[in-house]
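Input (structure):
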């Protein structure tokens, strides 16, 4: 069973399609069922739609970071927010 904090950790990988298909399915199922994560499904789907509807572009690293910072702030301001890891190291 996937936990909320794992979802948030894996969300960027999910958007970038860096996950195994069964892992993607598990996360999407959780997003649909979890009352903590559900509000973010809308944002997530919008993001994915936008990603699919535009040609790939080089996103400056700072824009990428800013985007995820905003997402993380939104997530942590949720009522009953699950504990998030402080940072995710990924090079
Ligand atoms: Zn959840």
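Output (sequence):
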């Amino acid at each position: 069973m996937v936990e909320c904090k794992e979802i948030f950790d894996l969300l960027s990988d999910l958007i970038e399609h860096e996950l195994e298909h069964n892992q993607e399915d598990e996360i999407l199922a959780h997003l649909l069922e979890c009352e903590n994560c559900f509000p973010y499904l809308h944002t997530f789907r919008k993001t994915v739609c936008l990603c699919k509807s535009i040609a790939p572009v080089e996103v400056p690293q700072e824009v990428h970071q800013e985007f995820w910072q905003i997402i993380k702030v939104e997530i942590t301001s949720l009522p009953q927010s699950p504990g998030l890891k402080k940072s995710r190291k990924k090079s």
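Notes: The first helix runs from residue 4 to 15. The mean pLDDT is 77.
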